[in-house]
Amino acid sequence: MLRLLRQARNAICGPLHDAGLRRRVAGGGAPALVPFYHRVADHTSNPWTISRKEFARHLDYCRDRLTPASLDVIQATMESGRNDRCLLNITFDDGYAENCDFAIPLLIERHVCCTYFVTVNHIVHQRPFPHDQQNGAPLAVNTVRQLREMADHGVQIGLHARDHVDFATLTAPDQIDQQIRQGKDELEQLIGHPVRHFAFPFGMPAQLTRAAIAGVRRAGLASFCSAFGGYNLPGRDAFHLRRFHGDPEFSRFQNWVRFDPRKLRREPPVPYDTPDPTRRSSGAPECDRLACEASATNAAESDRPHVGAPQ
């Protein structure tokens, strides 16, 4: 019943949202959208898994509406105070092996920018995530080899902490540094690529504490990502990248992409100290391109690549 009501609301409000978005784009206030996913698969259904068909449907819907962009480019547009293109970066959290069977190859084939946030110790020790164990269905995690192959194909690997911890329970700087700074150093050694972005496990306001965000800055990371839903708009502080759930219920996802202004009013505040505005001057790749052209050009006419089977 609720689904039917949401679909009816989209049918009525959707054209109004589209018109409002066109006005926003014309005025240089286009949003950057960063949906997050966990696992794309057709078996072992759970609340953090979306089917292959629905994931492809999300990409199809975004194809003519949004321009793929790296998180670094999204930050640059936020800092510039003006953006006349609606941008998209697809993100994943945790690090599930099945994503390399369909989702990641599809993103690479379509040249859609992707940031893949992983929990280091689960990758290193090949240990299932606690939420899967509690669900009674432990699932395979990515291997180091898969991460390296993704990075080599242009997928940006990000940090999802050293362990899948609740940062609301961590207050001591040494505990936070172990999870963020040490996790970043270990992940860079594993994949042989720089790690620039961090996504909080759970990603709700309770986890986004001042102490934890200060730890992100101490680690030299360019951003932290939340997961409670929000738009990244020109003029907003770019240290905080707001993400929304890539919901398997398509009407919800569609509503986010069409820009629902009510969500701006509902976004919770996240207080933190403003980072050093020079933080991106030395770390951001100079060769970064809006549509991930550098990583995709050589494979433009090739068959869909399969990114490393688990080992």
UniProtKB/TrEMBL annotation:
One of its GO terms (biological process) is carbohydrate metabolic process. This is Polysaccharide deacetylase family protein. One of its GO terms (molecular function) is hydrolase activity, acting on carbon-nitrogen (but not peptide) bonds. One of its GO terms (cellular component) is extracellular region. It comes from the Bacteria. InterPro entries: Glyco_hydro/deAcase_b/a-brl (IPR011330), NODB_dom (IPR002509), Polysacch_Deacetylase (IPR051398). Residues 264-289 are annotated as: Disordered. Transmembrane segments: none annotated. It is found in: Secreted. Residues 86-311 form the NodB homology domain. The keyword Lipid metabolism does not apply. Keywords: Signal.
